[in-house]
Write a structure and sequence with these properties.
Elements: H1 2-17, H2 26-90, H3 94-100, E1 117-126, E2 129-138, H4 143-163, H5 169-185
Antiparallel strand pairs: 1-2
Helix pairs in contact: 2-4, 4-5
Length: 196
Amino acid sequence: LAIFVIVYCLHLYLPSFIEPTFILPDQQYKTFTIIFFFLAITLTFLVGFYFVNMNQDYENIILHQKDSLEARNKEITDSINYAKRIQTALLPSDHFLETELENHFVLYLPKDIVAGDFYWMETVESNGKKSVLIAVADCTGHGVPGAMVSVICHNALNRCVREFEITDPGMILNKTRELVVAEFEKSHEDVKDGMD
């Protein structure tokens, strides 16, 4: 369009500076001017139509990608929320805590939906005396990886007390470490995760 405007302006103003070799009659001049403007408007319309259609195609592609990402995000978030329900079910219940401990409170604020932090409690009887064992643990990793490690560590603590009937805190920690290491050694991957 810019080229057409420049040519048209040159056509209008150039004859005043340079002597034309031929002069078009007024009727032909008007006809050429009308044809030129018609062509310029048509070309502008066609270019605009092309860009509008191209923009619409890109908009459709972006909307499709957005819908796809939203669906994947919802699926992942739903899965993580379900994992949170499972992880919460592993924690000692409020009823269990109230039954076993008179004055207590729990401040559990995981950074992510699921986390590597957890607390554990178990009651044991040894020599006719009831004891309450409590652990507050921070597993390697954040989010989903940390939550997976916390499940393994939680199960190792349960096995130490229930299966191996260990009640000494130091021995529980040693056996828990042994069980977690044994669990990770089953894999061919080099896993160095654990629990503090």
